[in-house]
Please model this.
Amino acid sequence: MNIPVNYLSVLVATIAGMVVGFIWYGPLFGKTWIRLTKFSQTDINKAKEKGMGKTYFWAFIVVLIFAYVLANFVYIWGTETASEAFQLAFWIWLGFVVTIQANAVLWGGKPFQLYIIDIAHYLVVLYVMSLILTLWS
Model:
C-alpha cells in the first residue's frame, strides 16, 4: 500500500508535539512530575551541566517517527474532520498508550498520579497531532 504523506504536516505536528510536551512537563506539571519521579536537584543540575541538546535531538526524532506513523493512521483511518481526528487519537491512546503505560504502574512501581500525568499528556499530543495531520492532508 502506497500511503501519501504530507511531510510538512508531519514536521509541524512534530514541533507541536514537542511544544505540548514542553508546556506539559514544564509550567503545567513539571514540579509534580519531578517530585513523583524522585529526581533530586542534584540530578537536575547534572543533566543541565551535561547539556540537554542531545536529549532534545533524540526526543525530536522519536516524536518525528510518532508523527509519521500517526500520519499513516490518519490516511488509513480516512479521517477528514476534527471529530474524526479526535476519535482516532482517542482509540490509539486507549489501545496503546493507556495499556502499555499501565505496566509501569503494575510492574514498575510507578506512582498512579505520574501515570495519569503521562497518559493525559499523550492524549493531548495525539489529539493535537491528529488534528494537524487530518486538517492539513
